[in-house]
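Please, structure for the following, as tokens.
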Amino acid sequence: MPLLICSGYVLVSALVSYILESEIIALSAVPAAILAAVCILSWSAFQRALNRRIDELVAATERVAAGEQVDESLLRDFTELQKLSEAFQRMSQQITSSTAELRSANDRMKAEIAERKTVEEALRNSERRFRSIWENSLEPLRLTDEKGVVVSANPAYCVLMERRLEQILDRPYTEVYEPGSAEHKLARYTRCFKSRTLERYQTKKVSLRSGRTLDVEVSYSFIDMESERPLLLGVFRDVTERIAVLDKLKNAKEFSENLIKTATMMIIGVDELDRITIFNEAAEKVSGFTKAEVQGRKWSELVRADNSFLEENQDDAYRHNFEARLVTKNLQERLIAWQSNPLIENGEAVGTIFFGTDVTNHKKEEEHRMALERKLLEAQKLESLGVLAGGIAHDFNNLLAAILGNANLAQLRVPASEIKLTGYLKSIEKASMRAADLCKQMLAYSGKGRFAMHVLDVNEVVRETLELLEVSITKKAALRVELRHGVPPVKADATQLRQVIMNLVINASEAIGDTSGTIRVRTGVINAGPDFFAKSYSPAELSPGEYVFVEVTDTGCGMTEETLKRIFDPFFTTKFTGRGLGLAAVLGIVRGHRGALKIESEAGKGSAFKFLLPMADAPISTETNPGTDLLEKYKGEGNILIIDDDPSVRAVMARMAEAVGFTVLQAVDGRHGVEVFKENEKSLRAVILDMTMPNVDGREALQQLRAIRKDLRVLMVSGFSESGNTSFFTRNGPDAFLQKPFTADELTGKLKTILTARKLDSNGSNGSSGLGVPCF
């Protein structure tokens, strides 16, 4: 359009000159006026068309922000804005596609998690668990087939039968006993196996080949497998000592005090009124009481159990097996596995005798193992979802890099007088930055977020955040703030830390709802040990020690166990739909700061969220980051190479670099980039290198480039954060890092840094090249 105006101006000038020279001024005044009017009307029409197209672009931006897809082509006639429009179209299509993929992936992830709980635990862990139980069980176990052949036996069975495993496997079970009547026993076994008429519980005497005789209690159960032959599981128990005691108890006069006294298991006898009459040394050792102290006291005073079975007919002395807690003398509780039997005298029941084994430590170990398995499952679920969120954030950052970059460049081309157009472009830039913040939240959820780490005063961050939240929380809630004086500083990202506090306080406010309640925010220092970390969500490698904590508690509705299991699922809420990542992002931010999160909640009794942060070993940061306009102040020169597989991102970076004076070469991936570098090695001053590319990625490409020229200046760019990329490099890493999306000023600033600073050689002194310095 400016060309059209200039052409009109030249034409009018030529006509005026001609008219003057021809001395026909009066006759030419009318055509000249008409021509000038045409030019003015054309310029006005251009402005209206341009403003209309810009309005269309802003409307399309708002629809994209609302999640709609834009199908129409915008600003077809203006090259720079057309590229911006095309980038918006691609982003709209990508957002629609990625949203569908995210929902689909989320559904698949839920199905995979459910399947993992069943299939993986069944297939991967069942065999290991069964083998561990089988091998470590104190109960002798044996598997036999329909012919009585031993298929498997555990070590306890081999010890009981005084035989090695190879002497038992693939042989009839009768070979472990003394010779005699083996065929008769096997024939009877086979008939009972086929008819399933085996007695489930049997007590019999077993004569071993060594000459020993045992009283053995056996419980049988059939194991039917669809694809394999049925088997019979036998659980053996040596009850020789118990039978000996029972034999003595059949006649009270023959009762042996010495036998009870020396028994290794607890033996407690009670009369018909539940009063203790027998209390052996093993019971004294476990309980802490002496026999004199408990003589005559009731059994129910020591053991917390349902004793209704004492009132029942106890004809079968081997079926009353249960667990109950014994209250010791020092008021501790020990979990005891009990077996109850009637106490017989002259053929009549005169009481009950209990045989007990302390299983407290065994139960604690089992509970600890199950807790570790639950924690591992939770970590696997979060890791899977984190990978998904990180991948989506990476792709969105690439799209936003093109949009934000083109908006920056468009602002350079717009005249200062076009205030309205400049405002539109700034709105586009602002919307892009909000989208970039969303990507940062997704990266934070995945535990790979980019944090601007500074040494901070936690109390000050809490005060600033709560000032913003006073108008947001329910008026029914009383906010109580308890900030411990002199809390040590922490190294954290202030923005992310505020996000965690805001999320927890708002959740507490919603939990209180329309009822009156209290929200309490505390800070302080805690000495966290293995017990704390075992009950919290934390990285496995956290070391015990002192940590700074922030705790948010409420007296709201609390959470059920089912809700607690799902609070870190993305998009899960008990309130209303559309809540986003929620506590999943909170956990990601805390994990990214090498901290821990502990949650305690009970339905109807409120919730408590406490997150820990490691202390900083440096004073609180006071530096600020003043803004600059390097596009106007800095002028670059020479050639640089841009290597990126995304054509739109590559193109916008090239235009940014050219805007400050650089000459740009481009490559479509790492392999192509190395080839272009070899052809132009001497003329190139720096390389802008993307991290994630096909064929040869950024890490491998950097190694090949540095092998060619050690003093090469490299700026690494990526849709992921710096921490997620630079961790690959132990030495000879990039000179600087820039996360997508970025502005032209940020790119120019990084290029200026690596091209003007001096680089340290391997000995720590200034090198002769004078180009660049590592930025991390």
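The longest strand covers residues 333-345. The mean pLDDT is 75.
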